[in-house]
Amino acid sequence: MSFRLISTSAASAAAAAFMVGCATVPPVAPNQLMTAPAPVTFAGNVAGEATDFVFMLIPDANPATPGLALRAGDSLLLSMPSAFKRNAATSVSADTDANLVLTKGWAQGAVRLAGQYRVSFDEAAHAMRVTALVDVPASGANAPGIKVIHLRGRTFLNPMPGDYPVSVSQVSATGGATARWQGQLKVLDVAPAARLAPSNFQLPPGVNGDFQKVATGAVAPQTLGLLLWGANGAALNGVGIAARDLTRYPKYTGGLLVQDTNGDHRLDPAVDKVVGGIIGAAPQGATGQAATSPIGADGRPVLSGEVQRNAAYPAAVGGGKPNPGLLTVQFKSGSLPGLYRPTFELIGGNAYQFTIEAVMP
Which UniProt keywords apply (predicted)? Predict the structure, then answer.
C-alpha cells in the first residue's frame, strides 16, 4: 500500500512537471506607454493632420536614468491603431530617419540610425518596425540609451478626434516578446490656441540644455530652448522674458513671457502683450535664481525668432539661420544646492518644466 501511494504521488508529480513544461509561457506584463505630440510640430495630434507623436518607453528624460539597449536582430514593433491610415503619398525609407527615429529622451537627441538600425512597415500588423542591424548599446555615443520613439514624416494620417489604444513590443531575434508597453493616442478636434515645446536647436546636434549641473550662483553653460507657436500654428516671434508682476500675474513667480508688439525691443508688460510666464521652483531658502533672455551684441534682449539654429545643422534644414519661434533662456542657479525647476507656460496653451541641478563649487 505504501509503495502504491509513493508510486502514485511520483507519477502525479511527474505529470504535473510535464504539464508545467508544456504550458504556454504567460505573456509579458505591459508597461505604461506615455504618448505626446512631437516637440517640433504644432498640429501632429490634430484630426486630419499628419501624425507626429512621440512614444515614451522610458518616461524619465533625466540622462542619469538608463534607457534601452537592443541586441543585433532585436526589434521594436510600434502597432498603430487601424484608424490611423498609412499615407500612400509617403514611402517608408529603411535607411533614413525620415519616418521614424529613436531618441535618448530629449529634443534633437537622436540615437543614430545609420549603421545601427533600419525602419520598415509591417502591413499585416499595421505596425512600424525598428530592427537592430548590430548591437545598439545604451552607452558610448548612444548613452543613456533608447527612451523614445518619434513617429513623423507624414507616414500616417490622424483619424477623427478621440482616444485610440496603441502598443509597442520589444521582440528578440528569435521572435519572443521581451517587453511590452500599452497606452493611448489622444487626437484633438482642433489645435490649441498656443503651444510650446522644449528644443535644443540652438545647441549642436545631440547636446541637451535640460538637466544641466552647475555651481550654485552660476549661469548654466548651455541656454535652455523652447519652440513657441501661437494662433493657427504660426511661429510666436518677438517673445522674451520680462520681470515678474505678482499683482497682475501672481502665478508667474519667475518672470513673464512678453511679446514685443511695438517693435522697440523693450519688453514692457504694460505696453506689450503678455503671452505666458515662468513658475519658479527652487530649494527652500534659495535666493538669486533667475531666468532671463540672453543679451545680444547690441545690448538688447534676444527674442524668439531671432535665435539662430546652430550652424552645425545643415543649411538645408536651417542651420545658421534664424529659427522661427525659437526662444532661448539664460538660467542662473540660486544660492543653495539642489534642484531648480522653472516651468514655462503659455496662456491658453501648455507648459514645460526644465530641471537644473546646482552643486556646491
Answer: Signal
